[in-house]
Design a protein that fits this description.
alpha/beta; 14 strands; 33% helix
Length: 288
């Protein structure tokens, strides 16, 4: 399976949200990182054909998706960041409702619902009203509905927004499990959501694709660009104004700042190991 994006662009009036994007995807998990107004949501809405593009092409296995119509939509699963539920519906009733909207029915639909509720660990709660569910349980329902119909392309928008660490891990584990033989897109601000499961990471900034590489390759690219420097609380504000600060760490000997950039403070201890995607994000997306 191959999904090709060719010179894809989108303008809202005078604002260029996406600028001639050229990229190719095959089976795997793709993390999409970028600050606000980077073009993440625009890109996903163009992939789902919910938004009219300004220019360019999107082709699945050589065929333009606009000409595929329903056949393309049947291959898509979409997990929104948030969705209004019928609070009185149980998880099973909601999935049955969504399944029928997707054209599923009968034994096939029932079998998929039971399988997916097991997969997202909600089978025992399948008859409870969704109105009684926690935020994490609601997100797992949204993930289950995205998987109805066995889609080949899954698009997830901030799937762990507002969740506690345990629920974020639950969602990540499920995504890793279901990604085989699929193209999975995860747009997120939470770098830890993708660093262990993404095959490749797209860095978007101001509508441009800055880089697309594996997490390991991206991390290697910032070697020599990250350092740590001790500082006092009085020095903290001045250093924050001069450098990109990744983290402020309280150690036994005092405060230590993690600094990212081409020009590090002269007395910084350059970090060669323990580099992270957080460092990558700051280096490529937070520098002006």
């Amino acid at each position: 399976m191959k999904l090709e994006v060719k010179a894809l662009s989108k303008k809202y009036g005078d604002f260029q949200a996406l600028k001639a994007l050229n990229v190719e995807f095959t089976e795997g998990v793709y993390g999409i990182l970028g600050p606000n107004r980077a073009g993440k949501s625009t890109f996903m809405n163009l992939l789902t054909d919910n938004l009219k593009r300004t220019g360019g092409e999107i082709c699945l296995n050589g065929t333009e998706i606009l000409s595929m119509g329903k056949a393309y939509r049947e291959k898509l699963g979409y997990m929104p960041q948030q969705q209004g539920f019928y609070e009185q519906f149980s998880a099973m009733e909601f999935l049955r409702y969504i399944g029928k909207l997707k054209g599923l029915k009968g034994k096939r639909l029932n079998a998929q619902i039971e399988e997916l509720l097991e997969k997202v660990n909600l089978y025992e709660q399948r008859h409870r009203p969704i109105g009684s569910f926690s935020g994490g349980m609601r997100q797992r329902v949204l993930l289950a509905q995205a998987l109805l119909g066995e889609p080949e392309i899954i698009i997830m928008d901030e799937p762990t927004a507002g969740l506690d660490p345990k629920e974020r891990i639950n969602i990540r584990n499920i995504v890793a499990e279901i990604s085989k033989n699929r193209i999975v897109f995860i747009a997120t601000h939470v770098v830890s959501d993708i660093e262990c499961i993404a095959n490749k990471v797209l860095l978007l900034k101001n509508g441009n694709l800055v880089r697309m590489e594996s997490p390991a390759e991206l991390i290697a690219s910032v070697r020599g660009k990250v350092g740590e420097i001790p500082c006092s609380r009085k020095e903290l504000k001045n250093l924050q104004e001069q450098y990109i600060i990744g983290n402020t760490i309280q150690r036994q000997e005092g405060l230590v700042l993690r600094v990212v950039g081409d020009l590090l403070p002269p007395d910084a201890n350059v970090i060669e190991d323990n580099l992270t995607l957080e460092d990558v994000y700051l280096y490529y997306l937070e520098q002006s």
